Amino acid sequence: MFNALSGQCEPFPRETSAIPNVLKWYACGPTVYDKAHLGHARAYVSQDILRRVAERTGGYKVQLVMGITDVDDKIIKRAKEQNVSFQTLAREQEMQFHQDMTKLYIKPPTAITRVSEHLPEIVKYIEEIEKKGFAYEAIDGSGVYFSTHELGKSYGKLDPRRQTLENAEMQAEAVAAVEESQVVEEEEKVKKDPRDFALWKAAKEPDEPAWQSPWGMGRPGWHIECSAMTHHVLGDKLDVHTGGVDLRFPHHNNEIAQCEAHNHGVQCGHDKEWCKHFVHFGHLYIRGRKMSKSLKNFISVKDFLEDGHTADHFRLFCLQFKYRTNLIYSEDRIRDAVVVADRLRGFFRSVVAYGGDRDISSSDAVKSKRCEKKDLEMLDALFMTQAQVDKVLLDDLDTPRALLLILDLVSRGNTYLLAHRGDTEAPDEVLIALTGNVLEVLDLFGLEGLHAEFSAMMRRRFALLGQEQLHESDNLVSRDEQEALLRSLLKFRAAV
What we know:
metal ion binding, nucleotide-binding, five-stranded parallel β-sheet, metal-binding, zinc, single chain, 16 helices, Cys-tRNA-ligase
């Protein structure tokens, strides 16, 4: 996997921070002031696929912790606009976020941390940084700031100006993010260094959310929240940190600075890095601009799914492109994903049709047949594809190549079925191995709707063989397909 720290592709660590092969993994979750959109979904779907590959293909046990920002200026502002408490808004939006992720077949994290539930730990974390000389109180009492000067040359490990990114567009975008983060504001006047950032912000208004601290009433800065919460749940070190590429700088960069300052002088292991591997997911663009809430050019996950699309279609859309690239959203590309789903569906229907002329109620129909040359060639292609899929997925999560390999296998499977349309009969064992492998990859990709639909078809096709490995499902049509069909019918009816 590409490691943003080194700028190179490196394997995930085997000598992990906990037990060997157990990845301590922290993922930045949403700031819950509005509904999740497809830009968020692209990042979390990519992360989910990476997690599944790490667990199944890489052989890791994953301890995935997601941080939820439920104390933030945007949340407070939106809550005032809606005349509700910030806690109520945050809980409602967080609940909607988790519902959206479930509908996209994203596996839940091992644990969730919320800022509002970790204020004591955050205050203690800041105190430790201040005690070690890496923080100072502003002379005007506006808060506590991190001293980048005290960290010296160690500060800026994810500053894109210190690295040459392989993609010129991403390099320019990352540098622009740095410049945007350095816009002069009122707080710049009290900083010792323009790069310094707030650890604790003093309350300005009597009615704004605030908590008691050694520096008076206030609330934490954005960056310190993740550092303190990861320390509380995962300890002094972690193995993998993920998030959107927009979080690389300054957020993740400043997390590293805080954690190194906090751990200064502490024996944390055989190396000094707080986190060994940073993985970032590309942006989603629409009509030439990044999809974002601030630009109001987003499509919510809820609206996407209610518009006749399915979670499988969105995941297939994501799978066709590298996770690190910026991706352009369009209806044409979603239709391309639908075509891929239909190709897969056509293959499984062919397998069903191939056995459709057999009387499966007769025990005479259940028979084995020795493998001939074309059967053995099909098995060779199957096992070769398995090895190639594993290889490309472990090569910086190359899902486009993996998907093409599966589609090529499906095409060969269709050719194989046609070759057996004459006097010869394809052994069920070969068909079970072939369809089982395709189903296994669909499950790995989190295409749960398609997996359930095709598994049910194969269970009925091979019912008398008692094969249980093809997945337990009694529905011939997936839940997504049923919901999409129902929505289409309702739209048609409303238009008549």
